[in-house]
């Protein structure tokens, strides 16, 4: 009996602890609870700085062409060229410097004049307290301009509901290989919720709304 209880306890402890990102409950119920605490949350600003390595030409490229238009290579802006990337993000510009995450997503040449990329990507952090959290970028990137400002449209994990700006500046580019190292300054607002705010029990209301296929009304 005692063994059974111990096993049951361990099982519960493991299933409760494992699915979380640094103590953050990422189950649907955990997310609901987090939203309920939002009225008591504190908005906070976070700044991140890192280097993005777009490795196009190499034995192991991190950005690979996945599509093109039939006249992409007759176009002065390579209109229609699309690449999928899983680019390393590092602390310093050197490629062998410490990796803090990956830029995973797609960029495509979306402008007939000037070179303007459509950037749709997630910054997937893999280090320290941000490990497992993401920020999503949806932006316009004129790669030959000095500063390219791109919106942070959301986030997950400790960056839930993030809104902000990522500014890209080319650190180094090789026009022949197209390999580039790009410096990113990211600033955004997200929320710090406090664990001690009591659960006010609106789980049932949420369930009903979902059943009725309604937009869930917030209590904010
Ligand atoms: C490129 O594709 C378009 C649309 O499918 C077609 O009309 C055109 O003839 C193609 N051009 C070439 C050079 O293949
Ligand atoms: C990040 O989290 C994963 C599990 O989600 C773990 O395997 C990995 O070791 C962690 N990395 C760091 C640097 O903490
Ligand atoms: C690379 O190409 C861009 C755009 O054509 C140009 O402005 C830049 O000077 C070139 N860089 C080098 C090192 O040739």
Textual characterization of the structure:
Belongs to the plant dirigent protein family. One of its GO terms (biological process) is phenylpropanoid biosynthetic process. The chain has helices spanning 2-17, 28-36, 203-211, and strands at 42-54, 63-67, 82-90, 99-109, 117-125, 134-141, 148-156, 163-173, 180-192. Strands 1-3-4-5-6-7-8-9 form an eight-stranded antiparallel beta barrel. The chain has three helices and nine strands; from the N terminus they run ααβββββββββα. The longest helix has 16 residues, at 2-17. A hairpin with a 6-residue loop joins strand 8 (163-173) and strand 9. The protein has 220 residues and is α+β, with helices and mostly antiparallel strands. Helices cover 15% and strands 40% of the residues. The protein has a single domain (42-195), classed as AOC barrel-like (Beta Barrel), CATH 2.40.480.10. One 2-acetamido-2-deoxy-beta-D-glucopyranose binds at residues 126-127, 131-132.
Per-chain topology:
Blueprint: H1 2-17, H2 28-36, E1 42-54, E2 63-67, E3 82-90, E4 99-109, E5 117-125, E6 134-141, E7 148-156, E8 163-173, E9 180-192, H3 203-211
Antiparallel strand pairs: 1-3, 1-9, 2-3, 3-4, 4-5, 5-6, 6-7, 7-8, 8-9
The protein binds 2-acetamido-2-deoxy-beta-D-glucopyranose (NAG) (3 copies).
One 2-acetamido-2-deoxy-beta-D-glucopyranose (NAG) binds next to loops.
